[in-house]
Structure formats: C-alpha cells, structure tokens
From TrEMBL:
Keywords: Oxidoreductase. This is Glycine oxidase ThiO. GO terms for cellular component: cytoplasm. Residues 8-374 form the FAD dependent oxidoreductase domain.
Amino acid sequence: MARPADADVVVLGTGVIGLATAWEAARRGLRVRLVGPRLGEHQGQASRAAGAMLAPFSEVAASDNSQRVALEVRERVAARALYDSWLPLLRQASGRPLALTPGLWVVATTGGRGDAAELDAIADAARAHGHPAERHDPADVPGLSPARSVAAHGALWLPTEATVDSGELMGALTDVLLAHEGVEWSEEHATGLRPSAGADVAVTRAGAPDIRAPRVVLAVGVGLSDLLAGSGDLDLALPPMLAGKGVSVLLRHVPTELPAAIRTPMRDFACGMHLVPRADGVVYLGATNRLTPTGAVTHPLVTELTDLLREAGEELNTRLYEGQVVGTRVGYRPFTLDHLPLVGRTADPRVLIASGTYRNGMLLAPRVAEMIANHLTGATVEAHPFDPTRTITPHALPETLEHWLPDLVDLFLPPQGTPTNMQGVLADLLHHGLRSLVTDGSGPRGAAVRRTWEQAPVPEALWSLLVAYLK
C-alpha cells in the first residue's frame, strides 16, 4: 500500500513568486510543502536584489508592439490593483510595518535616444488604462540633479505606480509562512521530479527523502534548467529559461531629498537608471541587465559597478557620488524567449509553473499566486497570455538587429553622446559585422557567435555575440 502524500502541493522556490504562491495556497486551506533556502545570502536570487518598482506603465517602450503592450499592461495593472488589498493582509499577518511609497517619476534626458517619445508611450499606456500621467518640468522633480552635460528635458509623474522595500516584503512573507500551521518548509535543494506511486509526483532532494504530492509548482526562476535536467522521466514540454544578471548598489547618506523613486525610460536592454528611496534611509540604485549563464558570477564586476554609478550620477543626481556604498546586490532575472512569464499547467497537468517574470516579479507576485491557487483549487482561471504551453517564436536576427542595434551602440557611448556621427558609424559596423558572423562566419569565432545566437535568440544576446567573438 502506497504511503499517503506528504502535502496537497509542493512549491519549489523561495523567491517572491514561490513565497507568495505558497501563502495563497495555504490561505485557501491546502497543505503546502515549501522547498528551498530560507536563511543565508540567497546569492543570485532576483527577488532579494530587486528595487521593487511596481510599474505597470513605466516599463513600456515606444518601439513596443501595441498589441503586446495592451496584453502585458493589462496583467501588470491587475497585479498593481491586487497590492492594495494584498499588502495590508500581509502587513496584518506578519506584524511588519509594510508600506508602499506612492508615485514614480520618469525623466527624459539627453542621455537616451528619443526619451521624449518614450515618455509619450508611457503616458499613453497609463491613460489608456484609466490611470493619470502628469507632465512636469524637470525642475519639479525632487532629487533630480543631473550633470550639466546630460540635461533633463521632460518629466512624467505616475501617481499610481509605487515602490516597496523588497527586503521587508520577503521578510514578511517568510514570517507568515513559518507561522502558518498549513505550511512545512524544507530547506534542502530540490534536484528533480519523477513519477511516484498512484498519481503523485515525487520531488527529489539532495541528501533527503523524496517529497510526494499530487501537485507541484515550479517557482525556481533561473534554476529551472537544472531542475528539468533531473526530471527526465516527466514530459513537461517547457521552453528555455534565460537569465538576465542585474547589479544594484545600496547607498546611505546621499545628500539629497528623495521622496519618491526616479527613473529613466527603458534603455540598454534594461529598465533604465533608477533611484528608489527606502524607509530606513537607504537609496537603492539600479540596475544593469546582461544575459549571463546562471551562476557564472554571483558578485558584481568592477565595470558593472562603475558604469552603474557613473550613468546614474550623470543622468539622475551627481550628489550620489557623495553617498556611502553600504552594499551591492546581484540577481538573475528569469525570462523566456518571448519575454512573457510561464504561469499555469505544464504538459503534465500535475506540474504547474510560475516563473519567467523577468523585471516584474515583485509586481506580478500576488497576481501569479492567485492564478496558480485558482488552478490548484479548481477555481476559474481567467484567460491570460502566460500559458506555459503556448507556441514561442524565436526572434529573427535581421529584425533584432534592425530594432535593437541602437541599444547596443548606446552601451559604447557616454550618456552625453559624441560630437560627431560616431553613433551612426558604429551602428553600421556592428550591423554588418554581426549579421555576417551569424549567417556565414567561418572559423571558431564565427561558430561561437552562431552558437550563442542559437542558444539565446533574444535582443539581450547582442552584447553576448560580441563577447563570444572576442573570446
């Protein structure tokens, strides 16, 4: 006779998506086994490295497809609305003084190509969803003081966007899960999945017995590939999960008032420069984004830190240079080839996934947790664009070069630009060189470039193509 299941559901992963999902499932009366680290530095975890901007609109770019914007913004707006009820529940359950810092400034500077158009796109997206977007003179933005060589020429105030302290939020979720009688937390590392007796799935762990349950939720972020490698007996039919390495800096004693977050529009394959104030007086400065093999480097590179500090100082506030660096963070953001999350049932209905939230994990957490809990309890699941079994069409290189090459060029140029047409010359050189190498380049360097693109046909890989060529 087979032993009974160890839980109604096993949730793998202790980032914000895993913790939020485990809490939501437990609140609905399910017996939950949570698997993943609780203590320690959580090196590489995106959630604990996040600036935690709850930004449905300021992540929009002018070049984005309008239909795609409508799909993504709809989900982000729904997630932001959930925070107004979800955060008070978490505050009450944990006893922690969780609070949102309301509002977010987006500034246009001469450091970004077409920043004025970016502000237009952000404002249009907000107003299309019934949210205000207020135009201001840059002089109205508290805490904005860029270098003279990088003038600010526009500002947008988004009062319904917000920020939250990611450390406090993760601590609150940890507290409520440890105290919940329906949750058991196992800190061993999950190594894979396999079929078990009856209809259950077994979670294998390093140095510990298997855990059996009728449902398993994969919320392991960029650890998905390793987990799937140990799950060969199950056909989950999941697409690749890539990792974007983000580096951020924590500052104290910055001699400026910063009542709300300030950011630039999207650029350089990332979410732009941003300063986020926290209640303890720390200023979060973020963030880079580079396609990186998972776990390759869990510490920031010197060049990442110097570039981040220089660009944020020049574009947002030169007085950052007078602050004290009290910490750095590195997080690997999980993302798919089409940059949409994977949320719901896999090809094996016993296994669900909640991952690939990229730069919006903190924002989407209550929304994703609700979706997964609805699956687990048989409640109605509204239609959404995050179906894990969807067909994902990889990016084509010609279109990627045409659309994204200016972002690659910007990585080589200072924020204030160049006095000559260096940008155009460099763009032409990179366009022809990369396309030639990927399509018909010979020799080991050409092969390395082609292999890099085949493994990750996404815009973020353009920088990696250059790295592959130069190695």
